Amino acid sequence: MQQSERKAFAKINLSLNIFPERGLRGYYKVRFVNTSISLHDKVKIKKTKTLGIKIDEPTIEESENLAGRAARLMFETFELGGGLEISIEKRIPSRAGLGGGSSDAAAVINGIIELYGLSVSIDERIKLASGLGMDVCYCIVGGLCVVEGIGDMVKRLPWNPPTLDLLIATPEEKKPSTEWAYSILEEDGLGREYSRLEALLEGLRQSDTRSIAENLYNDFEKFVFNHYPVAADLKRRMLELGAINSILAGSGLSVFGVFKEPHIREQARMALRQEGFWCETARPVE
């Protein structure tokens, strides 16, 4: 095999719980419920005769390109020869809380394993991914999962992804980084809505759209909203435009809403685009 092509799906956190206690490396312990969504980048990996790794993704600086770091990690770990050319067709907004860079990196890890015929277990892949970022660990597995520990314990849930009509909206503003978002957390305000997670899981088990929507939760939300009122305003507009519920996506600044009817979602999409937001419909996927 000389070439591998993969879809790198964005992710959303249906429940994002951060606990005051710290785990390994000083990271907060977490419990998330994540799902992949249909919005995706396309990652193409091609073997070349020229030594080295070439990344064709001009919108991201080389130092920030997780896909490039993932490729170098794989080459060093498995002592791979030759060269690689990686091209990424970006559709997921960067630094927006949707895991685009992490998903690209996971696609590179899984793609190189396929391309070189390597035998690497899921647990080994997650261990490799943990050196790049905890969202990469989840993206290695993808689909509907519970994520625990410091983000490095990923378990697939035994149910199909929920049927949700989603609208993703992103302002032009960008937060500095995910690390920044963690730095503004106040420990006495964390983990207080953990009981809602069980209600969310029951909603997922029963495929109950309203129960899922009503129990969405994100511990980052209030802290990020204090620094970026535009994200809070975006959530408010999403609700005004008919969403059953809306929350911050990851550490932001994207916001997503769950809609009962596709035509209401489409009206909201058109309105938010006219207001200057990047906006796209999506659905959960495996």
What does this protein structure show overall?
By secondary structure, the chain is of the alpha+beta class. It folds into two domains: 3-156, Ribosomal Protein S5, domain 2, CATH 3.30.230; 165-285, GHMP kinase, C-terminal domain (Alpha-Beta Plaits), CATH 3.30.70. 35% of the residues lie in helices and 30% in strands. The chain has helices at 66-78, 100-115, 122-129, 134-141, 178-183, 195-206, 209-214, 221-227, 229-240, 262-274, and strands at residues 3-22, 28-48, 52-56, 83-89, 145-148, 153-156, 165-170, 217-218, 245-248, 255-259, 278-282, 284-285. Strands 1, 2, 3, 4, 5, 6, 8 and 12 form an eight-stranded mixed β-sheet that branches. A four-stranded antiparallel β-sheet has the order 9-10-7-11, with helices on one face. The longest helix has 16 residues, at 100-115. The mean pLDDT is 94.
